Amino acid sequence: MQTAAALRPCPAHPLLPARPLRVSSSSAAVPARCGAVAARGLGLGARLLPVSPDRERTTGGASQRQVACGAAAGDAAKAGEESGGLLKTLQLGAAFGLWYLFNIYFNIYNKQVLKVFPYPINITLIQFTVGSAVAAFMWATGILKRPKISGAQLFAILPLAVVHTLGNLFTNMSLGKVAVSFTHTIKAMEPFFSVLLSALFLGELPTIWVVLSLLPIVGGVGLASLTEASFNWAGFWSAMASNLTFQSRNVLSKKLMVKKDKEESLDNINLFSIITVMSFFILAPVTFFTEGVKITPTFLQSAGLNVQQVLTRSLLAALCFHAYQQVSYMILAVVSPVTHSVGNCVKRVVVIVTSVLFFKTPVSPINSLGTAIALAGVFAYSQLKRIKPKPKTA
């Protein structure tokens, strides 16, 4: 039943005919209609809508708006997360790209210098000198937090620095004797030495799958060695010694680097920087008493070499050497060891291919096959290493 108020014209506009409307019993309907008509008179274009007797519909509309706003906020948050995830992926991809790029340039410049300047101890000392200078600069400027290290920690790090020094020295000796591609093919045998030394000194027995993955690595390196045009025993054994020393460093780091509760733990970049500085002090006297300091303008000029070219390339090689190892440790801090191992395998493929193209290294089909088999074995090893043996039940 309609009320009398619904039939009464608006007092502000007596000439307008009143239209019967369906309204609630509340007397607020009259000022509502009058306000709507007044608004239309002012040109605001407001329209009077019939009032529903069921207020739950209005309340339900508000709830629907709240739900819609919440869903929109959720979609915006999800889009923000996806954008952040994409940015992290792009940053990680850029880090891998820099890792590969610095490694490629290190091998190219290093090989160019070693071909005309056959003094690998001098070259290695230059690399440790530049690396130490970069580390000192980063500590001095605050780019890298200066570590608080105790005498006990330095004593524990010393064996790591010794094998790190030997590993890089043997690598440079091999690069000076054989092709870059062949050195990196031999260095693909690192997993073999890792499994062997871990079993002997840490008691970590590999799974049968890991052992099987070593077969193509050893077989592929052997096949590549038989058909390598630049093969010589000095280069071969130097690369093998590099594998042994680098994997010894990894074993020693697990066995000796026991952190005490009261001592501040070292992050990977600081640890690498400290090892680099210690390697400089280890190798400097060795250089003086063996080869002598040959990397000087006077000696280079007397040897008939381009002084500026040799020194510039030696400096660039040293910078790339330190940069690619720094980036490698940065990547290892944000990805799993297995992902890092796979990335290292891909890096070796990239270095081998680019060095063959740059230096126009003669490669036979059998040599390529052996290299491919060895690298495939390394990739399989990095994947199978995740498989843990099931614990024996009593």
TrEMBL record:
It is a multi-pass membrane protein. The keyword Membrane applies. It comes from the Eukaryota. Pfam families: TPT. Residues 91-382 form the Sugar phosphate transporter domain. Keywords: Chloroplast, Membrane, Plastid, Transit peptide, Transmembrane, Transmembrane helix, Transport. NCBIfam families: tpt. This is Sugar phosphate transporter domain-containing protein. It comes from Eragrostis curvula (weeping love grass).
